[in-house]
Amino acid sequence: MASARDIRRRIKSVKNIQQITKAMKMVAAARLRRAQERAIASKPYTDKIKEVLTSVAANIRDASHPLLEVREVKQTAYLVLSADKGLAGAYSSNLMKEVLPQVRGRDNAKLVTVGRKARDYFKRRGYTIDGEYTGFTEKPSFQDAVMLAQLMAEKFAAGEYDEIYLVYTHFYSPINQKPTTIKLLPLAGIGEGDQTPQTEYLFEPSAAEVLGLLLPRYLETVIYGALLQAAASELGARMTAMGSATDNAQELISKLTLNYNKVRQATITREISEIVGGAEALK
């Protein structure tokens, strides 16, 4: 049985950990509010550019653009948006569970990772990493999205990839985030299906030229929105995980305090018994 001194040391260490987790929860909560506002603010722009792009595509009979080219799939790329840091509960593991079934056993699957977690996870398992980017997962900028969009567009246009998927975590609430996979390229579905333009547009100089300018912007906007969603999801998962860790630490402290009191009481009782026994022996 542990001594009273050992239990006191354990209580002190758990209290120190509790202070750290509580501080991390507060920091994540403060940053989550800003990240959530950015993610919400980007959605109307994404919806509007998609509406305009749909309208442009509807006005062109035979749209021709490298990003619209559909060809035989020989190489598939996955752009995976993960985290640079841990201590976010099951955030990273859930994302890997989303990606792994899609790339397992496929020699033609390539990975472009954003964040250290995805890079390290797939490198340890021997998967091919065509590109790795770190350092901006918690605070992504639009320039980060432009860089990724240009990279994906260039590799697709050059024929290195025949289709590209974007894998990220969609933010619903601080306790609800869902890993999501969407098809990034080719943009063959624009203007098809039952999507009808809500507004009529006049295009100058022509709808075809406007389409050529809008497609890269649309790609950048989609990736930027996904980066913001992933950042908010990471902070929400970290806030929840650190809140649970703080509560668990408090519960552990209560149990250790109770155990400490029992050990202390037993020690006092034993000492009293020894004193009484010694006094009786002297009679």
From TrEMBL:
One of its GO terms (molecular function) is ATP binding. One of its GO terms (cellular component) is thylakoid. It is found in: Cell membrane; Membrane; Thylakoid. CDD domains: F1-ATPase_gamma. InterPro entries: ATP_synth_F1_ATPase_gsu (IPR035968), ATP_synth_F1_gsu (IPR000131), ATP_synth_F1_gsu_CS (IPR023632). It is a peripheral membrane protein. GO terms for biological process: proton motive force-driven plasma membrane ATP synthesis. Its main location: membrane. Keywords: ATP synthesis, Cell membrane, CF(1), Hydrogen ion transport, Ion transport, Membrane, Transport. It comes from the Bacteria. Produces ATP from ADP in the presence of a proton gradient across the membrane. The gamma chain is believed to be important in regulating ATPase activity and the flow of protons through the CF(0) complex. F-type ATPases have 2 components, CF(1) - the catalytic core - and CF(0) - the membrane proton channel. CF(1) has five subunits: alpha(3), beta(3), gamma(1), delta(1), epsilon(1). CF(0) has three main subunits: a, b and c. Belongs to the ATPase gamma chain family. This is ATP synthase gamma chain. It comes from Sporomusa termitida. The lineage of its organism: Bacteria, Bacillati, Bacillota, Negativicutes, Selenomonadales.
